[in-house]
Structure prediction request, 183 residues.
Amino acid sequence: MQPEETIAQVRQSLAKFQEGYTARDVAKLDEFMQLFVQGEEAELIGIGAVTRGGNEWFQGLSAIREIVESDWLYWGDVIFDVDGARITVRDETAWLSTTGKLVTTQERDKALEFYLRNMKELLEQEEASLDERLMEATHYGMRRLRERQKGLGFGWPFVFTAVLVKDRGEWRFHSLHWAMPVD
Prediction:
């Protein structure tokens, strides 16, 4: 297969990922999860991650499924630059980087209870010191207030990187990382 064809296949996997985040149809979440390698090796690192296994660092399909579902329910419109993604392929491994934006939508109002639960979980992390718990929960809450202050329709820029592997004839996501600039 020509390199251009392989890159086009990887780009198509990213396009399917975009389709899932555009539709945000929780009834099709199990189908969406087929875009990932199956098993516990899949990993998604969210924008707030700083510790493996900690807040926003997800390993395994069930953990990734939970965060994707909450993204679809509460996060707003996610728009990737699929066409502008830089893709490199070596054998049966590919990696990509691209940009995108998260557009604030009406979901922010129904997300408040979800955010408060997350803050409570941060405060209850027994492995963290009291100061660390307070700092993480406060930072998380301030970020949510900042998002609300920007209002509906504001587009938060982000960077997205991923590693895909050829699995059963398909390019599937192995590792993903979302990053947002500090605001």
Q: What stands out?
A: The beta strands are 43-45, 57-59, 77-80, 86-90, 93-103, 155-167, 170-179. The helical segments are 3-23, 29-32, 61-74, 107-110, 112-123, 130-150.
